[in-house]
Amino acid sequence: MVEADSLVKRFGEVIAVDNLSFHIEKNEVLGFLGPNGAGKTTTMRMLTGYFTPTSGEVHVNGVDMVENPREAKRFIGYLPEHPPLYPDMTVKEYLRFVAELHGVKKIRERLDYVQKVCSLSPVWNRLISQISKGFCQRVGLAKAIVHNPSVIVLDEPTIGLDPEQIIETRNLIKSLGEEHSVILSTHILSEANMTCDRVMIINRGKLVGEGTPERLSEELQSKRNIALIVGREIDKSLFSGIPVEIQKQEKLDDKFRLELSFPAEDDLCPELARRITEAGISLYQMQEKKPTLEEIFLSLVKEVL
After folding, report:
1. Which of 105, 245, 283, 304 sees the fewest Cβ atoms within 10 Å?
2. How much is the pLDDT for 220?
3. Are 160 and 136 in contact (CB under 8 A)?
4. In the chain, which stretches have pLDDT less than 70?
5. Which domains, from first to last, does the chain contain?
6. How far apart are CA 145 and CA 138, in angstroms?
7. Are the beta carbons of 258 and 232 closer than 8 angstroms?
8. Are 184 and 31 in contact (CB under 8 A)?
9. Taking a C-beta distance cutoff of 8 angstroms, is the pair 144, 77 a contact?
């Protein structure tokens, strides 16, 4: 659906995006993550035709964004970080205007759809200048999808929303991903973790990680981390002869909780369970601890600092 090949964007001597390549498939939600100034918004603007790359190519449904921008943009719905709304129009008038610009044939049907899915009924006939920032964000999202694009690009879509609206927007993004390709740019890692099928992490304009959170976790780990709950305190001598380190041990009422680590290539869980039970210690729980998306993000960003 979207192919970005060797994208570079320079502003004078500053390289905002540096040789970035990626793709997004149909019916996929791709999270685009990075710290402030990483190049996320610049990349979004090249994908949507607002910026021309210094070098590299963007294709949307096989159409070159630089060579045929008008045709390529027909396939895209874009919600920038600050939606360009017309304050002197009502919400309904504005969305009808946008639908007409896109040549939508069944305008009433599409307006009914975005009014419902973006929860705009309370402000449908109010001037945009008189509605809250949260509702303005929802109007911007409705504007991005009113023409039923095959690719939806969302730049920080939950900014300004209250917790209930954030949950509704995340659910909407996931449902949109069932029928569209969605690119979600965000710095909120929990949002990406709950919403996206795959994530890309960029820093200083470079791609530093790509894949599902689970795959990135596996690639990152040089050690496996195991959490145990046992019946009594364990001495490190119990694990002599095997490369296991006790990272933490704490008392929990009448039990103890341990955090152990060992090389990722070794599967020592069966041996750990055998030694603990043969020592007469009750083993209540053994669970592997995977790095969170936050830990993955911080590790990958630090690597290029």
Report:
1. 105
2. 62
3. yes
4. 217-222, 291-294, 299, 302-305
5. 2-217 (3.40.50.300), 222-289 (3.30.70.1570)
6. 11
7. no
8. yes
9. yes
